[in-house]
Amino acid sequence: MSIVKEQTPAPTADGSEVGEIVNEFSIQVATVNGSGSQSANNVLMRAIFHMGVPVSGKNLFPSNIAGLPTWFTIRASAKGFIGRKKEIDILVAMNRQTVRQDVESVEPGGIVLYEEKLKASQFRDDLIYFPIPFSALAREIVEDSRLRKLVTNMVYVGSLAEVLGIPMAQVRRGIEDWFKKKPKAVQLNVRAAELGSEYVAENFQRDSRFRLRQMDKTKGKIIIDGNSASAMGCLFAGVSVLTWYPITPSSSMAETLASYLNRFRIDPETGKATYAVVQAEDELAAIGMTLGAGWAGARAMTTTSGPGISLMAEFAGFGYFAEIPCVIFDVQRVGPSTGLPTRTSQGDIFSLYFLSHGDTRHLVLLPANMTECFDMAWQAFDLAEEFQQPVFVASDLDLGMNNWMADPFEYPQGKLNRGKVLDKEELERIGEFARYKDIEGDGIPCRTLPGTEHPLAAYFTRGSGHDESAAYTESPEAYTRLMDRLSRKHETAKTRIPQPVVELPQGAEIGVIAFGSTHWAIEESLLQLKREYATELGYLRVRALPLTGHVKEFVERYDRVYVVEQNRDGQLAGLIRMEIPENAGRILKILHYDGLPIDARFVTDQIADAEGLEKE
Amino acid sequence: MSSTVKSSGNVNQLGLAMADYKGARSTLCAGCGHDAISSQISRTFFEMGVNPYRVAKMSGIGCSSKTPAYFLGRSHGFNSVHGRMPSVATGAVVANRNLICLGVSGDGDTASIGLGQFCHMLRRNIPMVYVLENNGVYGLTKGQFSATSEMGARLRGGAVNDLPAIDICKLAIEMGCSYVARSFAADPRQVVPLLKGALSHNGTAVIDILSPCVTFNDHDESSRSYSWGKEHEELLHQIDFIPHFEQLPEIDYAEGEMQQVELHDGSVIQLRKVEKDYDPTNNAHAFKMLRETREAHEFLTGLIYIDPSASSFIDRLNLVDDPLALLDEKQLRPGPEVLDQLMEEFM
Q: Are strands B128-134 and B137-138 parallel, antiparallel or unpaired?
């Protein structure tokens, strides 16, 4: 083995000793899309996870199959912060196109492992460099050039393991997990990682500032992406019809669910499916099929993202007006239009809540973590059938496609709530049926399913004006009655949807409101504000629309409330101002909308600046 | 809506009377071809002894799409959005495979806004009867051309159509449809057996029915008028439908004079030769015939194409026998051990 020894520059800009940083840093891997770095990055993340260190992984990828730059960020956090950390401590530079920009983005005193041909050390002298001939090392064990490209990535995993102190046994375990059924691939990749590790051990004496040490904070935890978590929730919701049209970043939810259904929903006696998956020709058809199936009594759903939501608007209004249950998952991405299809956003809040022409208000669930991605998935089906209307679940690309640590999910409590469905026997007992009559005063009528063998069962579903018996009418009174009942139903729903999570620290004078994936930045920012500025804030996390009285109470408590969200126009803030106009002046907006996940430091800086806070 | 079963008189094998297959009073213009078709639909379902509870009536938007309110009052109906009835019907039959699905659409609903969904419904071979009430004009918006209007057609107000027509039957065959028929609202003797055949077919059965719009497109020079239809109708064959629950009649026909097609449910369609030799199981022949008659400005009616062996979308989904909509919690929600297993995979 020929090894080129190279001297590395001074460890820090001022040459001083730097303390060790253990289990609290971020790693950015810069590669080229399509180079197969996904396996390597996952192995690295899982190796850290198996060391007991809380970890998260974020893939910042282009809308492209191969050739454009892509980044994978791994954050290890002993404190358990798994949101995005903007500051990069450790860089693995593998992409010539971006090497300069990548090196420039590293925090002073950070370390850089790079393909030595890229000459990354020329750009700055305040970083610690590890030039490593990754591709040359890979060449020693792989002839085939295509395969070598893949294996090269595992070499940097080995090198990084040596630099950070990840035991090779954990790397091996990560590789075995990832390449489960391919012993040859395991062997080759383990060898590649060993080469990378050995090269570092033989060529570099200096310890890096950053170390990983065994902890016990991931014991019993899972690491999962939100789309898989939601797919699992749908499986346990008892979904029976999934219709979908491929669109990033939601496709993997439908595909993962289809694989779960295929594993767990085949009747063992007959070998036949207790579900149907239909890949539709477009989103117009996907929601049409879902509504048709929901109308006929199936637990039906579709998955999509922004452009699909726009296309579904007309049918969404139909579902609201004709009162048909179904569940629509919106894994939000950046809009408008095609926008940034592979970047994250919370920009669909207005769209979802009001989706359709005419007066329409939907139920929208807003998961913020993996547990809620799972729970809200099955709860959405119960709510859809209870309230007989489309229910939206709005996650986003950051939640849906990135890896998050969580506690194992809990099996759903209680039975499936199938709502007010009258079967043959009940129709016989009651002796009358009017599809849209509010019998119990909660705004929720009774429905029958097509195929119910009773002369009273049939009714005519229509998107046009209808009276209590579902007959066509243009009567002003009947229309007003119908719209008022739908409002009443919406009020009832406020008591049944997930309520906000509220933290009210003693002495806090200002508040913050957020939802969804923004939660992770808020949680960490609140600690930063406390530690750095000795300022505590009340925090309310909205978990569903419509907004409930809790939000009003919370806003009334504080002089100023910052609504932090990942869109340009402050959509949640707008809804809050609309719901409590008397306190609209207290609502201030903090907005992050560049397509990357919001980070804690951004929130802290914005609040500190707006409040004129002085550091302790 | 009557809930009593007639005990005497004209009842079908379920003991239901014709009245039990009727719907609300039509609000369409007097003389509308669509009302004639509604009557034929009621009659077909009555004579076939279809249990109305099993029927799902689906439609889109337009005059035609209002008609499901005017027949089969004991069946559930779904008047959906413009051009997208096929997707709703797909969801409904997937959710409940026991439903007998009847779609009614118009030429705007099918050939313009709904062209995409129409094609994909055919590609999937969704089990349903798809009646296209074709009048070449938008009625509810007061008389604009539709995509099935002939090039050069004139509306009563003088507007001339300068785009070629989409031939729905040709398109249907191209898209793999396994039951394609064309008929005339004023010819119940042909509409009814075609509807019965469609009900016995496994897959999408398209019946393109010329259904004149008496208000906007029934003037003499219109190729969508009653008079034009009567003058130009070219019968492919005389059609008899023998349901599976009846004996085949024993009538001798000369060699080549009669063709029998056995349908999915065991019913039989008998086609008696009129003038031309025509085999509706021959896809290429059907296509050629459609092209030639269109060029000759003939209005070809009858069973144009059939593949009785086609498998439907439901067959391909490998579904359990019970409707998905009626499965119980035990069949729908896997047990806690499955969740444990999945959690293990993510640890």
A: unpaired
